[in-house]
TrEMBL record:
Name assigned to this protein: MFS transporter
Annotated localization: Cell membrane
Organism: Streptomyces decoyicus
Chain segments annotated as transmembrane: 33-51, 58-75, 121-138, 150-171, 200-224, 230-251, 272-305
InterPro entries: MFS, MFS_trans_sf, MFS_Transporters
UniProt KW keywords: Cell membrane, Membrane, Transmembrane, Transmembrane helix, Transport
Length: 394
C-alpha cells in the first residue's frame, strides 16, 4: 500500500515538476518520461531470468533500495543528461522490482491468482490515495515540496526492500533432485521450449489486450475534449467510476481464473468488452448532447469489465502455466507486455483514431481481435507438458 501511494504520487506529479519547476521544454520532459518507459520494458526479461535462477530476493531488495534513492534524486540533479540517467535507472529498477513482487505473489503458497488480485486491489487503492495527495503537492508546486514528497515515496520502496530480504523467493528453484528420473530429464528441454514459446505468446497478447489502459488514460480524455460537448469535469467522474468498479470487482472476477481454462476464457472475454468500449467511444460523437454522458458511462463500464477480465486472465495464465522455477519467466512476460503497451500504446492508438477516426476504430477493434486469437495459443490442450503428464500416468 505504501509503495503504491508513493509511486502514484510520483507518476501523477513528475511531469508537472519537469515542466514547471525544473523548467524543461515539453519535448525534453516527454523524452525523459519515455526513457523511464523504455527502461521499464528493457528490465522485465532479465529480471525474470534472475528470479528463475533463485536470485529474486536480493534482486527485489537491491532494486527497491535503488528506486528509493533515485526518486528523490530527480529533484536534486540539475543537468538534462543526468536527469535522463536517473529516470532511466529508476524506471529499470522499479520495473524489475514489480516483476519480483508479482513472482512472489504467484509462487507463494495458496492461490496465486487470488494473491495477485488482492495485490492489484490494494495497489489501486494506493494509487487513488497517491492521486489525492498529488492535489496538495501540485498546489504547493515548490522544489521543497517535491523533494519532501519524493523522499516519502522512496520510503515505501525501502519497506518493500525489507519484505524482500525477509521473504524467500526463487530459492526453491535450485532445490531439485540431483538425479532426476530419465523421463523427467528428457522432458526438461521440450518443456522449457514450450514455456518460452508460451511466455512470448502471453507477452504479445498482453501487450495488445492491455490497450484498455491507453483507452482510459489517453484516448477517452482526447475523445471527450475533441469529439463531444460534454464538460471536461465529467472525466473525473468517469475515472472515479472505473476505480470504484475495479476495487469492488477485481477479486470476484479473479475467482473465474483459478484454472488455466478459466483464465483463458477471461482473457478472451476481455477482448469482447474492450471492443464494445471502442464501439461506444467511436459512436459517441454521432449521438445528441443529452445522450453523450450515458454513452460515455456505458463505455467506461465496458472498458472496466475488459480491464477486470484481462487482469484476471493474465494473472491466471501466468500463475497456472508456470511450472516450478518458471514464475519469473511468465511474470516478466506479462510485465513486458504491459510496459510495451504503456510505452507505445498512447502515441500509436491516438495517432490511429485521430488521423482516421472510423477506420482507426475498426482497425483497433481488429487488433484486439488479434490479441484474442493469440490468447487461443495458450490453451492448456496445446501444451506438451499435459501430454507428458498424461503419458506418465498411463
Amino acid at each position: 500500500m505504501l509503495l503504491s501511494v508513493g509511486k502514484g504520487l510520483f507518476l501523477a506529479t513528475v511531469m508537472v515538476y519537469l515542466l514547471q519547476v525544473a523548467g524543461l521544454s515539453a519535448l525534453t520532459a516527454t523524452t525523459a518520461m519515455s526513457v523511464w518507459g523504455a527502461a521499464s520494458v528493457a528490465a522485465t526479461i532479465p529480471a525474470g531470468m534472475l528470479i528463475d535462477r533463485g536470485k529474486g530476493g536480493w534482486l527485489g531488495a537491491v532494486c527497491s533500495v535503488c528506486t528509493a534513492v533515485l526518486l528523490p534524486a530527480t529533484v536534486q540533479v540539475h543537468t538534462t543528461w543526468m536527469l535522463m540517467l536517473v529516470l532511466c535507472v529508476a524506471g529499470a529498477c522499479d520495473s524489475a522490482g514489480n516483476v519480483t513482487r508479482r513472482a512472489l505473489f504467484a509462487s507463494g503458497s495458496g492461490d496465486g491468482v487470488s494473491a495477485l488480485a488482492w495485490a492489484r486491489t490494494v495497489s489501486n487503492v494506493g494509487f487513488a490515495l497517491g492521486g489525492l495527495f498529488s492535489v496538495w503537492l501540485l498546489s504547493v508546486n515548490s522544489q521543497a515540496g517535491y523533494q519532501f514528497s519524493y523522499l516519502l515515496a522512496g520510503g515505501g520502496y525501502l519497506v518493500m526492500a525489507v519484505c524482500f530480504v525477509t521473504t524467500s523467493l526463487g530459492a526453491g528453484a535450485r532445490n531439485q533432485a540431483d538425479d532426476p528420473e530419465p523421463a523427467a530429464a528428457e522432458a526438461t528441454a521440450p518443456q522449457r521450449s514450450d514455456s518460452v514459446r508460451r511466455g512470448i505468446t502471453l507477452a504479445a497478447a498482453t501487450a495488445i489486450l492491455t490497450v484498455h489502459a491507453t483507452l482510459l488514460s489517453t484516448i477517452m480524455p482526447l475523445w471527450v475534449t475533441q469529439h463531444t460537448s460534454v464538460p471536461v469535469a465529467v472525466l473525473g467522474w468517469l475515472v472515479m467510476l472505473n476505480t470504484l468498479i475495479t476495487v469492488v470487482g477485481q477479486i470476484p472476477v479473479s475467482k473465474h481464473a483459478v484454472t488455466a481454462e478459466g483464465a483463458l476464457r477471461c482473457l478472451k472475454r476481455s477482448a469482447v468488452w474492450t471492443s464494445a468500449c471502442c464501439v461506444l467511444l467511436g459512436t459517441v460523437s454521432f449521438t445528441s448532447s443529452g445522450w453523450q454522458v450515458g454513452v460515455l458511462v456505458a463505455a467506461v463500464i465496458a472498458l472496466t469489465l475488459g480491464e477486470l477480465f484481462e487482469a484476471a486472465g493474465e494473472w491466471g495464465l501466468s500463475a497456472t502455466l508456470a511450472s516450478h522455477g518458471e514464475h519469473g519467466l511468465f511474470q516478466s512476460a506479462c510485465a513486458f507486455g504491459e510496459s510495451t503497451q504503456s510505452a507505445v500504446g498512447p502515441l500509436l492508438v491516438a495517432s490511429m483514431v485521430t488521423a482516421f477516426p472510423t477506420i482507426g476504430w475498426l482497425f483497433l477493434i481488429s487488433m484486439i481481435g488479434g490479441g484474442r486469437f493469440l490468447a487461443g495459443f495458450l490453451s492448456p490442450a496445446r501444451s506438451p507438458k499435459r501430454a507428458l503428464a498424461a503419458a506418465g500416468a498411463e
